[in-house]
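Hey team,

Filing this mostly as a record. A colleague (T.K.) asked me to run one chain through the structure pipeline before their review meeting, and I want the input and output archived in the tracker in case anyone asks later how it was produced. No errors, nothing strange. Just documentation.

Input sequence:
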Amino acid sequence: MSDSIDLPLGDEARTLYTLGKARAFAPGKPFTSRVAFAAAHIVARPAGADAGNDAGNDAGNGASIDWDATLAYRRHLWSYGFAVAEAMDTAQRGMGLDWPMAQTLIRRSVAEAKASGYVVACGVGTDQLPPSPNISIDDVVRAYEEQLAFVEGLGGRAIVMASRALAACARGADDYAGVYDRILSQVSQPVIVHWLGDMFDPALAGYWGSREISVAMETCLSIVHTHARKVDGIKISLLDAGREIEMRRHLPAGVRMYTGDDFNYPSLILGDAFGYSHALLGIFDAIAPAAAAAFAALDAGDVKGYCELLEPTVALSRHIFQAPTYFYKTGITFLAYLNGYQDHFVMIGGQETARTVGHLATLFMLADKAGLLSDPDLAVQRMRAFLKKGG
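Output structure:
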């Protein structure tokens, strides 16, 4: 097959792109110097596909999931040494994946992890409760409690996700403190608290009771300090390295910072003289082989090798997560399709159309430059088929 492909870049611009040399990354083992979660995407079942015995598992909004391919992708991530963050925004939580579907996904992932000795933590939120200024704080607490009981009832670990419902009805910082106090007081094992910025979800603007990040951070830190024994760590996704470092330096001893910064993750994970971040990242879904090799280098004390492995992935990640940031799932799913982890480019809710052809063509080139097209011939074949289908 030709090692060149004609790609449209938008505004009638085109380029004849010649692929680089493919790079092979070997599966790895769990990392020792950092804790690293990959937030995993879901594989949809295209309309008209045989639902088999899983038809009864598909609930709400007509969403349909290919469970075999979805779980196979989690095994792919586990094989490279990552823990999996399940049913998070990367899995289209709140953008097509409702709570009934998330329950099935969580149940299956937890069972798979237990059977094979893998690590998984699951998103606990309030998405069964429609956001409204008319709901009560007690309603929000009950919604969190329902999801927490479900996850912990399976023996799963919880990630306490930011709540659209709480953002809609809270009158100030005291309401956030009250909700998290009630939830964190009853968890059976330490959880990860999740702060998702409004670039990822506009409905979360003003989370923690203020649109001023410094004020919001004070509220969040106060909650974490009060419940430090019940908090394994906090994941912040603000795409602001300075803010993350500031917060990291004020965390209680023993509470981890999990970077959710898909723009600046190499330096934040590497750290500085005062500390470093662990990771819970959606981009790890797409760059798992290279990221795993980088973590292995870091574990071995090879900082130069770590940087050389991760640096080429940054341009790809910044492209995938460019504004509107919440459409990043489209790029992650497209790369999984190019690499043969799913046999189609279809997403629940029609999210495959959320990015332009030019955006996805540039993604193809950046993935190749990062050595992340595992089978270049297959990737070219699928890219050409995608372009032909799109006219």
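Quick notes for T.K.: The first strand starts at residue 4 and ends at 10. Residues 262 and 317 are 6 Å apart (CA to CA).
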